[in-house]
Amino acid sequence: MVTSAPDEGEEKEGPVIRDKRRIDPETGEVRAPAAESPAPEAPAGGADKAGAASDEEVSSLKTQLTERLADLQRLKAEYDNYRKRVERDRVAVREQALGQVLSELLPVLDDIGRARDHDELTGGFKSVAESLEAVTGKLGLERYGEKGEPFDPTVHEALMHTHSADVTETSVVDVLQPGYRIGERVLRAARVAVADPDPDAAAGEADGEPGDDGE
């Protein structure tokens, strides 16, 4: 049986043994460490690309943060407006309900006022009347309408009209029925008699009548 000899160029296969001992067994000297292969260098321009990518990410994050902040501010403004509207509606509903109740008591308060004007508010009736007026006052009910105050058509109802030399503007000269209000809301306008300045008296002052020189 003939076997072919291995080619000269063909390498022989076999285990590779590397001696990693620090002391040379033949000479007894310390072996110098083998030179380590240098670390691969980073590709040129890699740092610049990484820096540019980082700047773009920071800019994107800032833009998103600005948008989210604007959304939060808009949401807060909407909530504040909603809360104010709810509070305003709540106050309006309370005043409306309170006004309806107090309006039913106005005739009673009128009777108390007339009794007081005629000195008939005495005894137990006086105590009850004062307690009722105190309670309605705590609830915000205010009585208004006085002689001599300027006439205001938004809070006064003129039932009588005349002229007077004693006034310089349209004024209340008599209160026929007092008015009542809660805050700025008028429950009942004051019914009054009003007087305008007397045009004849004003004309006489303008003409300047001569005084009496005496005899």
From TrEMBL:
Transmembrane segments: none
Composition bias, Low complexity: 32-53, 194-205
Organism superkingdom: Bacteria
Bias-annotated ranges (Basic and acidic residues): 12-29
InterPro entries per the UniProt record, alphabetical: GrpE, GrpE_CC, GrpE_head
Subunit architecture: Homodimer.
Function: Participates actively in the response to hyperosmotic and heat shock by preventing the aggregation of stress-denatured proteins, in association with DnaK and GrpE. It is the nucleotide exchange factor for DnaK and may function as a thermosensor. Unfolded proteins bind initially to DnaJ; upon interaction with the DnaJ-bound protein, DnaK hydrolyzes its bound ATP, resulting in the formation of a stable complex. GrpE releases ADP from DnaK; ATP binding to DnaK triggers the release of the substrate protein, thus completing the reaction cycle.
Protein name: Protein GrpE
